[in-house]
Design brief:
With about 800 residues, the protein is of the alpha+beta class. It is built from 31 helices and 22 strands. The chain is about 45% helix and about 15% strand.
């Protein structure tokens, strides 16, 4: 048992010293890892198995016969975690015979806790070496006819009702090691639906079904889908090992037993990271319809809309923004019997991503100005009412604000009219100018540097901050050494520091409520972690000349005006040209008047979220002082309803909080699907294109133009290391990434659509962009030269 391992290791002081050295090793220092790991293994193998333990082992062995061949198998406490299986990281031994050999291999199993690969795996996954212990399982060997692996859920698609079996003749060691091609079977609801022969058949269909039935029993006992190792001897199955399948995405809860289809909210919001419980709770209060969650992500149940011919086309229109979602949904529609019969009562709530046909609206800049002023006044009123309250009254005020102001702002018909008018004008321009002039995606240029785009203005505003800092070398040198968030307090002591502080504070007053993953209220905001901005500011100081912000905006505006003049003059040369030009001019005016407002409603939500967050954290401080909450940020792992209970005097269940922290950490390792069924099946759509060069990475064209440059694969906005002309490659961007856009020449993301924030800002800045490129951050190497075809929607790997 692990207790035996602890006693053995604790009795050797030299191992403790070696563990101290190992804890300080850098992950990239392979030589040091190898040297220290080998020392620890030698130390452990040199320790005699204690007499009492040795006697227990040999006594057990005598009961089955000392000459019986055994497997001596490692089983570490860090194996089969939700976030990491550690499969194959430690050693096991087969066909070990005799007491002396078994005791020697027990020591070798203990020592294998410190193989180079196991140590590196723990370092990469943040697992403390001292907190991992080793048990050893000694099993009588079976001489099997066949052996293999059973997954009680499909390991690739996640389908919970499809089991897969891999089988090979003889021992399963070669199969698990990938040395032989196995027979493969799929079983769906008790029927063998697919089989592939790798060897001469190792199992009959009846045996496959019997094995899967046994696997279902184990799954029910363990409470989750299982990865099972088995062997077959004399027509009897022996289960050698069972562990959870760690890669499956959880299924949203549904109690009705019906089939359901779920569409990811995060892919539409450009934030596919997991969200903490408070963040989920707040977003659900914001949303206009119910949103189940799973794996820390939010989904929309589109089953009934997809089943009804009256609403199906509107749901499939999600494919206009994200073709992979659209294709996945069409796959489900084409499946016979999966969707329920078409409902008679029409849609349930508004379809996600769709909006009712807006009433006609005039092209009037005053409408946008009025909407912005109304939003600002509403946020100010919310702040006054919420900041004045505490305890239950605070929760009442926040929940009232959801209904009275936040949802009202989100669903404001006038606001939706403006956004839809801009989208319709964009489509009109692109469609007609391509038909009349052969101009593809002309609206991308026509919408550069439009007014009132609060997200693109933010990137330009950070250029102005750099202008205030650039003339002061002492400030620049200080910022290059910043490593905490208290640096603002030290700025006034430096030459030019007061000017720098004023510029940064002015930026934070306007944009400090923003941050990466901002739809999750629990994520840090720039006002809370201003050091996040330091690398962006320094990058602007190094890359740009003074006044770059204003020049960039004006350059985009002039390019848009020149494009407008060009297409209008060419249209007037056509038959009925004056009429076409007049219509086009009206649409250009319409799109430039309204397009910038597209970013404002989310800005309003994020501003309001920051008001809620500040008030809730102050309340959390009071709860900590009252002994009802252990740590301030434990409040992030509670829902609003649970916070209300704590405020009313119910102490937090610390075990529940810890459980949720562990679950949240496990969710980070999962890749959320765009479309998921209630069977757990991840439906992966395809672009279905054959008009791109061989080897090109296909995506969605969202901002016209072609650019070639160095790819910079960036996962963390605070350490971008970008140079002018670089092409940003990342998983997803939200508005907080827009300050990077001023430095880059193009954009590639794994997630996104035509109207997501990254696409909107890329068009306004005139950056060629392709989004929705699956696994772009893995398929494109950092520093690799690539060519982005923003008009045609693909990326070429040049070198």
């Amino acid at each position: 048992t692990t207790d035996a391992f602890r006693r053995v290791v604790a009795g050797d002081a030299s191992i403790g010293a070696q563990l101290d050295r190992l804890a300080g090793v850098d992950l990239d220092d392979r030589d040091a890892i190898g040297t220290i790991s080998a020392e620890i293994r030698r130390s452990i193998e040199a320790i005699p198995v204690p007499d009492g333990l040795a006697t227990a082992i040999t006594d057990a062995l005598s009961r089955i016969g000392e000459d019986t061949a055994c497997a001596v198998r490692s089983s570490a406490t860090a194996e089969d975690l939700p976030t990491a299986s550690f499969a194959g990281q430690q050693d096991s031994y087969l066909d070990v015979v005799g007491p002396a050999a078994i005791l020697r291999h027990v020591s070798r199993c203990w020592a294998s806790l410190f193989t180079d690969r196991a140590v590196t795996y723990r370092l990469r996954n943040g697992v403390d070496h001292r907190k991992v212990h080793m048990a050893v399982v000694v099993q009588q060997m079976v001489l099997p006819h066949a052996a293999g692996v059973l997954f009680t859920a499909h390991p690739v698609t996640g389908h919970r009702r499809v089991a897969t079996v891999e089988a090979g003749l003889g021992l399963g060691e070669a199969l698990v090691a990938g040395l032989v091609d196995p027979d493969a079977y799929e079983v769906h609801d008790g029927v063998v639906t697919a089989r592939t022969a790798g060897t001469e058949p190792a199992l009959t269909d009846d045996q496959v079904l019997r094995l899967v039935e046994l696997g279902r029993t184990i799954e029910a006992h363990m409470g989750c889908p299982q990865d099972i190792e088995w062997c077959l001897a004399d027509d009897r199955f022996h289960i050698v090992q069972s562990r959870p399948i760690t890669t499956l995405f959880p299924i949203p809860a549904a109690d009705d037993g019906d089939n359901h289809v779920y569409v990811s909210v995060g892919h539409q919001q450009m934030m596919t990271d997991p969200i903490k419980p408070l963040g989920l709770s707040v977003w659900k209060h914001t949303a206009p319809r119910p949103m189940p969650d799973a794996g820390g992500r939010l989904f929309v149940d589109v089953t009934h809309e997809l089943a009804s011919p009256a609403t199906r086309d509107r749901i499939l229109m999600l494919g206009a923004s994200d073709p992979l979602i659209g294709d996945a949904l069409r796959t489900i529609v084409d499946r016979e019997g999966f969707l329920p019969p078409a409902p008679d009562d029409g849609p349930v709530g508004p379809p996600p991503g769709a909006a009712p046909t807006p009433a006609p609206i005039e092209t009037d800049p005053a409408i946008v100005t009025e909407l912005i002023e109304r939003t600002q006044a509403s946020i100010a009123a919310s702040r006054r009412e919420i900041e004045a309250r505490s305890g239950v009254a605070l929760l009442d005020a926040i929940e009232a604000d959801f209904g009275e102001r936040l949802r009202q702002s989100v669903s404001d018909p006038r606001s939706m009219q403006v956004i839809m008018a801009a989208m319709e004008a964009t489509s009109w321009l692109n469609d007609n100018l391509e038909t009349w002039l052969g101009e593809r995606n002309a609206a991308d240029t026509l919408t550069q540097s439009v007014p009132h785009n609060v997200t693109s203005e933010m990137g330009l505003a950070l250029l102005d901050v750099a202008d205030a800092i650039r003339p002061h070398p002492e400030v620049v040198a200080f910022l290059e050494q910043v490593d905490d968030d208290a640096f603002l307090e030290q700025l006034p002591t430096l030459a030019g520091g007061q000017e720098a502080l004023a510029a940064i504070e002015a930026f934070l007053d306007r944009y400090g409520m923003r941050g990466v993953g901002e739809i999750d209220i629990t994520r840090p905001r720039w006002s809370e972690r201003p050091r996040t901005l330091v690398s962006l500011i320094l990058g602007n100081v190094r890359t740009f000349e003074p006044g770059a912000g204003a020049r960039r905006f004006e350059r985009g505006r002039q390019e848009a005006l020149a494009k407008a003049e060009d297409v209008l003059s060419r249209l007037r040369a056509l038959p009925d040209g004056d009429q076409k030009a007049d219509e086009t001019e009206r649409m250009i005016d319409r799109v430039r008047t309204f397009a910038g407002y597209r970013e404002y409603p989310k800005y309003g939500i994020v501003c309001r979220y920051f008001v809620y967050k500040q008030a809730l954290l102050e309340e959390a401080d009071r709860l900590v002082q009252a002994g009802l909450l252990r740590e301030r940020e434990d409040v992030f792992y509670l829902s609003l309803a649970e916070i209300r209970d704590v405020v009313a005097g119910t102490a937090v269940d610390d075990a529940l909080v810890e459980q949720r922290k562990e679950a949240f950490a496990s969710y980070a390792a999962l890749t959320p699907p765009r479309v998921l069924t209630s069977d757990g099946e991840v439906i992966s759509g395809t672009y279905g294109r054959d008009d791109v060069p061989a080897g090109a990475l296909v995506g969605l064209a969202v901002s016209a133009g072609t650019i070639e440059g160095r790819a910079r694969v960036v996962h963390d906005i605070s350490v971008p290391d970008l140079r002018a002309g670089d092409i940003l490659v990342t998983a997803h961007t939200d508005p907080s990434w827009s300050p990077l856009f001023v430095s880059i020449a193009g954009l590639v993301t794994e997630v996104g659509g035509l109207m997501t924030h990254g696409a909107v800002v890329a068009r306004e800045y005139g950056l060629p962009a392709v989004v929705g490129v699956e696994r772009a951050t893995q398929r494109i190497e950092d520093g690799q030269r690539i060519r982005v075809h923003g008009t045609d929607g693909y990326v070429e790997l040049v070198s």
